[in-house]
Amino acid sequence: xxxxxxxxxxxxxxxxxxxxxxxxxxxxxxxxxxxxxxxxxxxxxxxxxxxxxxxxxxxxxxxxxxxxxxxxxxxxxxxxxxxxxxxxxxxxxxxxxxxxxxxxxxxxxxxxxxxxxxxxxxxxxxxxxxxxxxxxxxxxxxxxxxxxxxxxxxxxxxxxxxxxxxxxxxxxxxxxxxxxxxxxxxxxxxxxxxxx
Length: 196
Description:
By secondary structure, the chain is of the alpha+beta class. The chain has 3 domains: 4-63, CATH 2.40.50.140; 66-129, DNA polymerase, domain 1 (Orthogonal Bundle), CATH 1.10.150.20; 150-195, Ubiquitin-associated (UBA) domain (Helicase, Ruva Protein, domain 3, Orthogonal Bundle), CATH 1.10.8.10. 44% of the residues lie in helices and 19% in strands. It has helices at 32-35, 66-76, 83-92, 95-104, 107-111, 118-129, 150-160, 165-174, 182-195, and strands spanning 4-13, 16-21, 24-29, 44-53, 58-63. It has a 5-stranded antiparallel beta sheet, with helices on one face. Helix 8 packs across helix 9. The termini are far apart. The model is unreliable at 134-147 (pLDDT under 50).
């Protein structure tokens, strides 16, 4: 498997680019979020990659950040989402904005991305909800925005403690309404779990 490439940019025509590494030109496709940060043709670059082997092709996708690659890989696990739609999503919305869309169940924001219809957006919201936990809590998860709410931080902590996402959500609801710190929410959720 090819995990990353470091070399000179031979050409770039969105969404495709070529990186020359040791005399070999690797053809990649990358989201626009990565293209915006690429240096000029002839300059050196390092990209994280995802390698896809199909019956009729071998495809390489490049990403500027680990968060982009992680989201791309999680999107591919959603039924009906292939690399083309995953790239379109990453090109039309940032990783942080996508996480907010899922947390807020914002279908309207997702269907503004070209190639994403209402049914696809609804499926994304359902299937990605359980994958949106802090990146250090579960391997392969999507990172939450830096300004995550106490509720989402408490949710991530409960998942890290071994609670299933649906169970963590239920425990946080049982913690009661009101403004609480992350620590207080976790304490109340764990007390609620102990009483069951």
